[in-house]
Amino acid sequence: MKVVAVANQKGGVGKTTTAVNLSTALAAAHKRVLLVDLDAQGNATRNLQVKSHFVRNSYTVLTQRSTVHQSIVPTCLPRLSLLPSSPDLASLDIELAHIQKREQCLKRALITFLSVPNVAQGNQPYDYAFIDCPPSLGLITLNALVTAHAVLIPMQCEFFALMGLAQLIHTVRRVKYNFNATLDISGIVLTMFDGRHTLCLRVVQDVERHFPNITFDTKIPRSIRVSESSAHGKPVLLYDTRCSASLAYIRLAKEFLNREKG
Ligand SMILES: Nc1ncnc2c1ncn2[C@@H]1O[C@H](COP(=O)(O)OP(=O)(O)OP(=O)(O)O)[C@@H](O)[C@H]1O
Ligand SMILES: [Mg+2]
User: Which atom of ligand 1 is nearest to the CA of 224?
Assistant: First the structure.
């Protein structure tokens, strides 16, 4: 199972939308996917149309009150499972303050999960796990980066996003140096793209110039269907398969898989 953290400390840049729709597109492409919702806001959990309160969830996993195996739930898509979130994640820093190696909690839980046969999935292993991170570089995102093989960075096409990106890449380098030598940057996904705005085009040029090999060619256009789909508790890919954002997420999944092959 390849673990991909979807992270950016900036809020509202499309992390959850990307994690949910990329997972959905890959499940539709016959991959087995586990979506881990590590954000106390629980938007990924709600976007998958499953009820939003679970007794066992990512918080109980991180605090060792349940195992991953006990806590994952099926979704409306056959090959997509969810480790749901809990509002209790908001106080995780305090809860784990006295624990040694608290940045390794998720990694330990996933290693245990992978070491036992997965009966719930018919003994078929997962191909990917996507971790939807909260908008901060605190303990939860650190757990995700310590666990992941790669980090996928959604970036909104606006000026201040570039500054946040430098800080995030610096953090990834520090995590790689201190905790997770094999951590890689899977890529930067430009989101909420609107080609009519000059500033948007400038940001795209800047990102592609500074990070030529890691920026995905696929840009996710701004589409009202994305906000509508959230209100309906569905991935946009299931809400309106043919809208511009859905078609872009399908292209992104293909590009992601091609890079994996490469
Ligand atoms: N391509 C898009 N077009 C239009 N709206 C979008 C698009 N992508 C995301 N949005 C909207 O922008 C808002 C933020 O998106 P999302 O929740 O995915 O960001 P996030 O980075 O996960 O936010 P947070 O940091 O709060 O977790 C949501 O209301 C979502 O519906
Ligand atoms: Mg989010």
Answer: 4
